[in-house]
Every structure is written in C-alpha cells, then in structure tokens.
Amino acid sequence: MNREQFMGKPNEHLHSPFHAVDRWTDDFRRIMAARVLESRLGFRKTWYLGALTLGTFTIQVCTGLLLMLYYHPSIPQGYADMKDLEFVISSGTLLRSLHRWSAHAMVFLVFVHMAKVFYRAAYRPPRELNWVLGVCLLILTLLLSYTGYLLPWDQLSYWGTTVGANIMSSIPWLGPKLRFYILGGHTVNANALLRFYVLHTMILPLTVISLIGIHLWRLHKDGGMYEVDDQGRPLLHEHDTQKNAEAAAQLAGEKTLSYGDLLFREVTAIEALAVVLFSMGLIWVSPLEQLANPMHTPNPAKAPWYFTGLQELLHYFPPFVAGIILPGLIVGGLIFIPFSPFFDNVKTRQAIEWFHHRAARWAIGAVLIVGMTALLIRVHAWDALLPLWAIVALTSFAAGGVDKRGNGLRRWLQEKPISFWIMTLFLMEAVVLTAVGTFFRGPGWAWVWPWRG
Amino acid sequence: MPDPEAPKSTDESPEMDRRRFVKAGTSSLAIAGVGAFVFGFRYLSPNVLYEPSPVISVGKPEHYRAGSVTLDAKNGIFVVRTADGFYALTAVCTHLGCLTVYKPDTGEIACPCHGSTFRKDGSALAGPAPRSLDWLKMWIGEDGNLMVDRSASVSPHSEYVSV
To answer: Which of A31, A255, A293, A387 is most buried (most C-beta within 10 Å)?
Structure first.
C-alpha cells in the first residue's frame, strides 16, 4: 500500500484531525527508525543504555528548571536557597536529591554506554560520527557535573572548583589566562558563580540537546541497531531505513517491528529507572556542607566519585600531566578509535596480526611492563600497577600457547585485538583509581582502610 | 531559459557576479567574526575586580611568640617568627591551591587536598607539590604593624624582618 492509497488523494485528508497530526509530525517521527529488527529489541542487546542516559538527562532538565525557580546565583544567597530547599520549600529536598542522583546516574550510564558500544564494535563506519558525538557528550556530561557542583556554594563546591580551576591554570602560558576568563577573577568568587550558573543552565544543556538530536538522527540513519556481519559492518545498503530494515530482516531471517515497539520498551525502561532514582532521592538525601569558607580547606577535600580517579592521579603526577595531558590523550584516543584499523575492536587482519607477531609482542610487552611499571613505581602509584599487571598476566596467559580444547578462555583472549587490551586497561584503571580515591583515602590523602572507623 | 554558454552578466550587474558576492560575503563575515571574538574576549575579562588588596596588615610584631608559625587564614598566609626574625609565607598550596595548615606536633605545613607537606621555611618536603611555598615581601609599616604584599614574592631566606 503506498502513501496515496493509505492517506487518500492529496488534499482529501487535510481536514481529518488524525491525518493532520500525522502530517505535522511526519518529519519529527523520522528521528527514529521506522522499522526495527525484533531480535534487536531485547534488553541484552543494548541494555537500553542510550535510552536510559536520555532518560536521566530529561530528569535533569525537568528538576533543574524547577530548582532554578528558587535558586539565586549569588553569594551567600545561593547557599541560603539550598537551606530553603532543604527545610522550607515543599518537596525541595526531594527535587535536589533527585537532581543529584540523576546526575550521578547520567555520568555512570554515559561511561557504561561508551564501553558497551566499544565492546560491541558499534562505532565502526558508517557510525563513526555518532561515536565522536558520543565522546563529546561524555565530556559535556562531565562539564555539566563540574559546573553544577559549584552552585550550592558549600565547602565542597568551593574547594572542588578551586582545585579544578588550578588544574586549568597548569597549562603552560595559556592556563592562567584561561582560568581568569572562566572564573571572571583571580579567585573563585561571585563572578565565577554566575559564570558557572550560565554554563550549567544555558550553554552546556543547549549544546547537549543539539548534540543528542544529531546523535539520535544519525543513530537510525547509520543503521541503528541492525545486525552486524562477522567483520563488524552493519548490514546496510544505503541510507534508507525501510530498505535497510527489510534487508537486515531478510538476512537475519526474522520479522521487523514498528518503531512504536521500540519506543514502548525504551519508555518502560526509563520509567523503571525514574522509579529507582526517585526512591534513592527519598532514602538518601543530598548532602550540604557548611557555607563555602575560603579560610578553611576541609580535610580530606574529596571530589564526587567520578572525579576521585582524577584526584588519585593528581596525587601522583603534576597537575598538567594528570589533569590535562592524560585526559587529553584519553579523549584523543577515544575519538581516534573508529579511524584506525589498529585501534579496531574487531578481528580484522591488521588488528590481530601484531599480536601473533613475536617482535611486536615483545616490544609492546617491554613498553608495558618495564616503562609503565618503572614510572608508576617511581611515583609510588601502587594501586595503578594492579590493572597494568592484570593485563600483563592475561596477555602472557593468552600468548602462552594453544588451548587444546580450542575454544577456551585462552583462545577467546588470543583473538582480541590490541584496542581491546588498551580499552580494558583504561577501564580497569578508571575503576581501581576511582575505588581507591573514594574508599581508601582519608585526611591528607593518606591511605585508610574503610572498615576502620 | 538563458543559454548557459552566454556571458554571465546578462541579468546581473557586472560589478557583482556570484564569485565576487561570495568573496565579499565570506571576508566581511570573517572580519565580523574576528571582531566579535576580540570584543567577546575583552567583555569576558572584567576590568574592575572587587577582590581584596594584596597588601595587608598582620598586626603588631609582639603578638607573635618566638618560634611560632601563625596561619592568617583570612589572607591565606603564614607569619613565621624565628630567631633570625619574621618572614611571611603563602599558605596557598603550590599544587592546586588548597589552604595548607601548620601541624605543631610534626613541625610541618600540610595540605589537606592531595597530601603535600612543607618545612617551616616553605620548602617542599613530600607529596605532589611542584614548588616550595613562596616567601612574601614583608616590612614594618609606619604605624608599627607588620605589612605583607601577597602579590610580591622574595627569594627564601633573603629577607628577615627584625624588630
């Protein structure tokens, strides 16, 4: 049935409300795929991570707009407004707690989403633009967290922002200038609060909204969640979702469902997450420390959990290395992934050959073991050594010989390309450093056992 | 339909064909962009700052015991009195700007944020701090108060203020 048969002759349908709505929303609905493969809809394929992240962002926009109705970005009124939200305004505590939990969930989900997309090799062409957009959204999410952190103007806000601004200022030549422009002064003060407020409530969210729009549009234009072949390429013919879905369905030998089925599942998942976050907001109320006091640094001055890994690095390396060079390399590496066969997480020839090449194996092994171990021992970063040695142990195990059964763990590890190991090392380092920074660091950033007092 | 082989300027003025229009358009946009960039940056940099003066008074010298290290948290400095005389140190950690504190039991200055420690003379002892704490310019004002200029550093052990 073509469109004319379905809709009637041109102009005939213009007076029917149903058809009018259909016509108005036609282009907007196309931001999602018209048809999706039934097997793609299961939770195990995507864990609905993209939809859930979008859900947390939606909660952030709604709760954030409501919080803005009572918040004045000035000193000390901003802090007084926090106290009002806590003790005077109906549901104020719940709103703030929900905003905070949803922010934490968003950071967490963005990271898991990235890892999932990487390990599923779903960044490969033609989806490379969406991968790059995803990395940008990851950075923007962290910036939103960082700028939002200052707004309550309590002790943690003030000193967290002071440390962050000084990391920025460690960039040679440009740093102090940049810091002055962003803070609007030499110290974290009223200008800085106002600038961060504008960034947090206007500039960053609007940027995120536009990038999410392109991200969703590219998602289905580039093949969406279709099956990938054994080379990791989506089964695509051209940029026509209807044809793609049909071709993919034909190859996979299964039927397709309309986008409504996908939307229903995703909205259900978001609602389930919203219930969880709401309950967390009711049980664990957002903390508020004392009014920001430039005369006293709390001890220990801890960042929120997603920055404690960075704080742990800052303990070992100079700010320019830990705060600028390393994150820069990580972001650059992430963006680079879809553009180099050597960083591809698919069993391509180039990606796998290095590993079976004896010289390359020794060279990489030497760099990893000797170079990084020496560096980390030199700065006494014992906790950062754990993931490194775990990776070394796993690669040595994989390189150690042929698994007789032919399909065991060793065989599975042997088929992993170099990017798999680099990404796994990065994620393990992130988890270990974050855990150490969050649970094992006490006053003066000295080691403490969390179960002792 | 005009003949595509015909000269371009049949229905356009010869002064402004498409190529010239695009050229003029992009260059004027570029000039406007550079202008907006420059003025935007100047706008973002405040000309007047409502920040406290770097020159401060820390009171009469006789308020400080011999051998004492006193934190003036409001101004972010230490006033140290030794046998050689007075000197002032910045209390702002050279690592990432946290306010350090003096620990009388160990005789060290310690930073709560990333665990740097310093000696009483400001020299870095341990931790991630890249530099020693700066010695600040100190003198006795006309009213007999100790004065400190927080924007001017002097080389360590070079200037002790005696009374």
So the answer is: A387
Within 13 Å and on the Cβ side, how many CA atoms surround B87?
22
Partner residues linked to B88 by β-bridges: B79, B136
Residues in chain A closer than 8 A to B110 (CB atoms): 444
CA distance B151 to chain A (A): 12
Q: Quote the DSSP letter at residue A339.
A: G
Q: What are the tens digits of pLDDT across the range A220-274?
A: 777 666 545 545 455 544 444 555 556 666 655 566 666 677 788 888 999 999 9
Multiple choice CATH, B55-154, 3.40.50.720, 3.40.1360.10, 2.102.10.10, 3.10.20.30: 2.102.10.10
Cis peptide before A300 (omega within 30 of 0): yes
Mean pLDDT, residues A313-338 taken together: 88
pLDDT at A239: 46
Between the alpha carbon of residue B67 and those of residues A184, A222, B41, B104, the distances in Å are 39, 72, 48, 11
Residue A7 has pLDDT above 80, yes or no: no
B130, closest residue in chain A (CA to CA): A318
User: What's the gap in Å between the CA of B143 and the closest CA on chain A?
Assistant: 26
Interface of A with B (CB under 8 A): 159, 162-163, 165-167, 180-181, 184-187, 189-191, 294-301, 311, 314-319, 443-446
Please determine, for residue A34, whether its predicted confidence score (pLDDT) is greater than 70.
no
B45: which chain A residues are within 8 Å (Cβ-Cβ)?
Answer: 180-181
Q: What is the ipTM of this complex?
A: 0.73
Q: Distance, in angstroms, between B12 CA and closest chain A CA?
A: 37
Distance CA B88, CA B76 (A): 10
> Is B133 exposed, middle or buried (CB count within 10 Å of its CB: 0-12, 13-18, 19+)?
buried
Q: Say if the Cβ atoms of B51 and A187 lie within 8 Å.
A: yes
B114, B150, B151: best to mutate for the A interface, most A CBs within 10 A: B114
Domain ranges in chain B are: 15-51, 55-154
What is the distance, to the nearest Å, from the Cα of residue A196 to the centroid of all Cα atoms in its chain?
21
Query: Can you tell me the distance from the alpha carbon of B133 to that of B123, in angstroms, rounded to the nearest whole number?
Result: 6
- Say how far apart CA B151 and CA B136 lie, in whole Å: 8
Residues of A in contact with B111 (CB under 8 A): 297, 444
Please judge whether A311 and B114 are an interchain contact, meaning their C-beta atoms are less than 8 angstroms apart: yes
Beta bridge partners of B69: B80
Q: What is the DSSP string of B32-63?
A: HHHHHHHHHHHHHS-SS-----SEEE---GGG
pLDDT band at B147 (very low <50, low <70, confident <90, very high): very high
CB contact under 8 A, A315 and B98: no
Indicate where chain A has its CATH 1.20.810.10 domain(s). Answer: 40-225+257-284+312-333
Q: What is the CATH number of domain A40-225+257-284+312-333?
A: 1.20.810.10
3-class SS at A97?
A: helix
